[in-house]
Write a structure and sequence with these properties.
Helix content: 10-25%
Largest sheet: 8 strands, antiparallel, barrel
Order of helices and strands: HEEEHEEEEE
Number of strands: 8
Shape: elongated
Strand content: over 45%
CATH superfamily: Lipid/polyisoprenoid-binding, YceI-like
Length: 181
């Protein structure tokens, strides 16, 4: 019993002392445009992300209504007709940077494989992509992109606009992470 308590205390101590970097102002953008039609793109500049530098674990959270479009009507349709933002207000990602180590970082981009689970509208999808990470001025910058399909998250695209929306939507991430004290 004493051994179990000691082991549990060591695990809690090591997790609590893990060095973490975070942001509440990360940028997540997407583009769902098709050539010859109006651009369908939006930016969310309030993504929260946290990186455990000892394990390479990363988690992000964003509010869907924080995506902003140049055209207000497009933003309204996005939230009400496609994303159902009142019912599903958040999107999350929980993943792992394979082979991540702070010792490998410098002012130059270093590539790591990022694997995890993206959750949108209560549906999950496994994601695997490359993340470019660098350590400059004590902050960690993470940049990545990947594609998803509206079908992956049960987002129905009406026939009348189906040809105006890309089948694969490109999502771009840019997070400037600072050390959490």
């Amino acid at each position: 019993m004493k051994t179990l308590i000691l082991l549990l205390a060591l695990l809690i101590t090591s997790f609590a002392s893990a060095q973490k970097y975070f942001t509440k102002t990360g940028t997540t953008a997407f583009k769902a445009s098709v050539e010859a039609f109006e651009p369908i793109e939006a930016v969310n500049e309030s993504t929260t992300a946290i990186l455990n530098t000892q394990t390479g674990a990363i988690a992000t959270l964003l509010f869907v209504k924080a995506f902003h479009f140049e055209i207000a009507l497009m933003e309204e349709h996005f939230n009400e007709n496609y994303m159902d933002s009142d019912k599903f207000p958040k999107a999350t990602f929980k993943g792992q940077l394979d082979g991540f180590s702070m010792d490998l970082l410098s002012n130059a981009d270093k590539e790591f494989t990022l694997k995890g689970i993206l959750t949108i509208r209560g549906k999950t999808k496994a994601i695997e992509t490359v993340a470019k990470i660098k350590n400059g001025d004590g902050n960690i910058t993470l940049v990545s992109s990947f594609s998803v399909s509206p079908h992956d998250f049960d987002i129905a695209i009406p026939n009348i606009v189906r040809t105006k929306i890309a089948k694969d939507i490109t999502i771009k991430l840019c997070y400037e992470l600072v050390q959490k004290n």
